[in-house]
Amino acid sequence: MSKRGWAVATVMVALSLVVAACGKDKTTETGSQSNTTAGVTTTRPTFAAGSTMANLQAKGKIVVGTKFDQPGLGQKNPTTGKVEGFDVEIAKLIAQGLFGGSLSDAESKIEFKESTTPNRETFIENGTVDIVVATYTINDARKQRIDFAGPYYVAGQDIMVKASDNTIKGVADLNGKKTCSVRNSTPAANVVKLAPQADLTLFDQYSDCVQAMRDGRVQSVTTDNSILLGFVANAPTEFKIVGNKFTDEPYGIGLKKGDTAFRAFINDRLEAIYANGAWASAFTATLGKLGIPTPTPPAVNRYS
Ligand code: GLU
Fold it and tell me: What does the pLDDT average to over 62-89?
């Protein structure tokens, strides 16, 4: 090869190396920034330094408080050890918005911590959890201590009785009867207000109420219809729902009071999953399986 020929060849090799390097860089960048699962590509977003989102990304983990005893919403599967249900799916979708990647990548970055109704505000305040996704009704009393993103679903209070019981048809029928709910819950407060003569037993979790009804210690269990439906689905010949809902229970995602940027991020993420169909898929795969038709998601409330 002539001198000139070598020079041209050298330039071409060098050029192709540059092109390859650019291509490689691009591939690497794409590889670390996005992931494709079931046709959905999510990119790892960047957040303002010092924000809760940036801090969680740096930690590579989010701690989510949820229920472990509520079928269809948040229940620990004794075989796999995984928590399953609509609240769990919502948590995964939020984590996906934080970390990018697929839903299962997001799941691997969540530490689920069992939270019961009475300890939710405390867990948020003292940093035991970063967020709570746990059939958590948004209300003003709770907003004194924590903030809520959402709502992402609206349930309603109802009553579960033995399948053979025809004496309880609505909240007023709880007067003079033994009913069970959970400490610090909105259903417990509603019973005190709407059926003041009810003989109310309070536990820390609804599965204890279900046990009390099995044992005959109480005649009914009252809480959100979404929760009761899961218990009935597990024992359809034993229990039934009265089917006369008497409140609205808008479910929010609890977070530290005053963390406005984090709340806005979760609200934006909720709107994104409403729009892209991921919220509806999550619902259909969980509460939908218990027979609830997939509703239109509620508008998020960016209260100030
Ligand atoms: N949604 C109601 C509440 O937040 C009842 C369900 C629950 O206790 O988690 O009080």
Answer: 97
Asked if pLDDT for residue 21 goes beyond 80, the answer is no
Ligand 1 neighbourhood includes 153 CB (under 6 angstroms) = no
Q: Strand 62-66 to strand 40-43: parallel, antiparallel, or no bridges (unpaired)?
A: unpaired
Closest CA to 302 of 150, 145, 121: 150
Per-residue pLDDT reduced to its tens digit, 154-168: 999 999 999 999 999
Q: What is the pLDDT of residue 43?
A: 85
Nearest alpha-carbon partner for 155 in 213, 219, 229, 84: 229
Q: Which residue has the tokens 């009913």?
A: 179
Q: 225: Cβ below 6 Å to ligand 1?
A: no
**pTM here?**
0.87
Distance 131 CA to ligand 1 centre (A): 15
Asked whether 262 and 51 are in contact (CB, 8 A), the reply is yes
Distance 211 CA to ligand 1 centre (A): 18
In angstroms, the CA 213 to CA 218 distance is: 5
> How far does residue 76's CA lie from ligand 1's centre (Å)?
18
The yes-or-no verdict on residue 241 having pLDDT over 60 is: yes
Query: Could you give the CA distance from residue 28 to residue 32 in angstroms, rounded to a whole number?
Result: 6
Atom of ligand 1 nearest to the CA of 182: 8
The pairing of beta strand 83-84 with beta strand 199-203: unpaired
Q: Is 22 helix (H, G, I), strand (E, B) or coil?
A: helix
Using a 6 Å cutoff on CB, does residue 186 contact ligand 1? yes
pLDDT category of residue 112 using cuts at 50, 70 and 90: very high
pLDDT, tens only, 201-237: 999 999 999 999 999 999 999 999 999 999 999 999 9
Does residue 73 contact residue 226 with C-beta atoms inside 8 Å?
Answer: yes
Q: Which atom of ligand 1 is nearest to the CA of 135?
A: 9
Atom of ligand 1 nearest to the CA of 155: 1
